[in-house]
Design brief:
The chain is about 20% helix and about 40% strand. The protein is an alpha+beta fold. The protein folds into 2 domains: about 10-80, Alpha-Beta Complex (Outer Surface Protein A, domain 3), CATH 3.90.930.12; about 85-165, Alpha-Beta Complex (Outer Surface Protein A, domain 3), CATH 3.90.930. Strands 11-12-7-13 form a 4-stranded antiparallel beta sheet, covered by helices on one side. A 3-stranded antiparallel beta sheet has the order 1-6-5.
């Protein structure tokens, strides 16, 4: 049995869960999310928890069991607490600037990189070199952070570029002269 799938998802106070066939809707203080789950999974909303069970022990059902439970848990955590991802910008002259729903990044190119913030995401520029991405959808927060990081990935020689705050860049030694 799936170790993740067999764990029940606790429903915190202030969060409402409604089930309509294989579609689950979660509403909380931060917003609401809706997800279509695999029809084979059996989802039961009990008193203060959600339990996901699978019909058979086939390989596909086993994989979908853990996936379904993780998706539900991410929805519950997102509408109650939310998700954040922090980025650091390293390099001389590299900076970020927020104006309305547009993030402008100066990353050493001949032009500034303009990124339009997607709906459902909040971006906060703490310093010019620190960007915090917040939202209730874990997948959207992660993909937004990855997109911003892809504009200038950190390079291994000087460590310049956009990196996750918890990421460690393995540094390489440069060439040595004779």
């Amino acid at each position: 049995m799936s170790r993740i799938g067999k764990l029940p998802v606790a429903i915190p106070s202030g969060v409402k869960v409604s089930l309509n066939g294989s579609e689950i809707s979660v509403q909380g203080p931060k917003g609401s999310l809706c997800q279509l789950l695999p029809e084979r999974m059996i989802i039961a909303v009990e008193a203060e928890q959600i339990v996901v069970t699978r019909p058979t022990d086939s390989k596909q059902d086993s994989a979908l069991h853990g996936l379904s439970r993780s998706l539900i848990n991410n929805m519950v955590v997102g509408v109650s607490v939310g998700f954040t991802r922090e980025l650091e910008i390293n390099g001389v002259g590299y900076r970020a600037e927020l104006s309305g729903k547009v993030l402008t990044l100066s990353l050493g190119y001949s032009h500034p990189v303009v990124y339009e913030i997607p709906k459902g995401i909040e971006i906060e520029v703490v310093k010019q070199t620190r960007v915090i991405i917040k939202g209730i959808d874990k997948q959207l927060v992660g993909s937004t952070a990855a997109k911003i990081r892809s504009f200038r990935k950190p390079e291994p020689y000087k460590g310049k570029g956009v990196k996750y705050a918890e990421e460690r860049i393995l540094r390489k030694a440069g060439k040595t002269g004779k």
